[in-house]
Amino acid sequence: MMHKKQELTEVSDAKRRWLNSHDIGYQKSMDNRHVQMIAIGGAIGTGLFLGTGGRLQIAGPSLVLIYIICGIFSFFILRALGELILNRPSSGSFVSYAREFFGEKASYIAGWMYFLNWAMTGIVDITAVALYIKYWKIFSAIPQWVFALVALIVVSVMNMVGVRWFAEMEFWCSLIKVLALIFFLVIGIVVLISGHPVDGNMTGIHLITDQGGFFPHGLLSALVLIQGVVFAFASIELVGTAAGECKDPENILPRAINSIIWRIGVFYTGSILLLVLLLPWNAYHANESPFVTVLSKLGIPYVCHVMNFVVLSAALSSINSGLYSTGRILRSMSMGGSAPKFMSKMSAQKVPYAGIMSTVAIYIIGVFLNYSLPTKVFEIMINYASLGIISSWTFIIICHLRLRKAIQEGKAKEVKFKLPGAPFTSWLTLLFLFCVVVLMAFDYPNGTYTIASIPLIALILVIGWFRVRKRVREISKKEKAYYHNDDSLNLK
């Protein structure tokens, strides 16, 4: 029995060495402040700064509860990812873990669904950047597609120069977002404590009780909105991709992941609670940042321009992160055979430039859409991005479940950084994600059409698999030979 367990451990160790060879060539240049800000940037984006106004119109004060629920499950997902990272850090993140625990087909699906998420999100963010810049009247005469193209060029250069440049851009963009929220929280708390009226309304809890209560449009309206709030948390999984280029992942990543839950509590829940205590929930609108709504009614000068700069930095941060993550994910897939061979190429700066430029090519389509359909791009793309992020989070959880099983069987070593309450919290998270998909179907017409398109996406994935499976099998043969200690293999 002991001999069999030792054999399993040796094969598992060999498999991990093979998978770790996919990360050869990356620079380990991210330090604690970079990873901390990447974690913040993933949890705070345009979904909070711009999307909250429309969500308050639909859910009212119950939006606070929705953000708390989604925040808790986001924390579970991050802790599950953290356990996987501490077991084996990889720039391929959950795509590499899917390959380790479920094989190449799972890795293929996980990778291309994640690419779908970032491809669609990137087009949305390029559109958002162009719209934010056109807010300033000095730029109103310039076509929208020009700003989309300029934004894409700037962020592409930042990614191609080196990982340190990406990390620095992400650090400063995230810092801008954090400082803006801290400013709002301080101003809001002072106004609330002082009892100063806002736009003729006395602040306080009565703004909730006098406006239809906690669920002014009923429980179902609030529940349907959960699928929209989930996507406000999209990008939190970037911490996993950053692990492969982190100086000291064992010490830095647990602190970064643990800090996200209180940041969500303070920045998301705290700011939304302040919003509904400072103004009636129906005073906010979908086409205006709720933070601008409050601050402008307080008479703070230039607040609209400042907040527009904040949401602009948030959109640029998202494009930046999209290029970074897809470049690494596509390289990991290419090393396993699930993506074209050329996508595994690295530049002299240790950047997977082929994968990044492939994503840029998709984003250029977004620039074209900004030229031909400038008013419809956002709605067309955002719903398809949602399927990608749910798929990615699902793979993180099922990989975590398989890791726990591997630990019990002696195929993997114990890690100290664990998901609390697992496996119960793991299965609960999967149930939550399934419910989100079901709720999407009730969000007519956008969500309904998105769910209806799943068979078409599945068909495209099947066709793609038949095109790459020959190369995948060839690489798998090398992998199995490596398990048997064939030192003659060329792993480069």
UniProtKB/TrEMBL annotation:
Intracellular or extracellular location(s): Cell inner membrane
Transmembrane segments: 37-58, 64-86, 107-133, 145-166, 178-198, 218-239, 260-279, 299-324, 351-369, 381-403, 424-442, 448-468
One GO term of the biological process aspect: amino acid transport
One GO CC term on file: plasma membrane
Predominant place of localization: membrane
Matches recorded under PANTHER family: GABA PERMEASE (PTHR43495), L-ASPARAGINE PERMEASE (PTHR43495:SF1)
Family from the record: Belongs to the amino acid-polyamine-organocation (APC) superfamily. Amino acid transporter (AAT) (TC 2.A.3.1) family.
Protein name as catalogued: L-asparagine permease
Species per Swiss-Prot/TrEMBL record: Candidatus Pantoea edessiphila
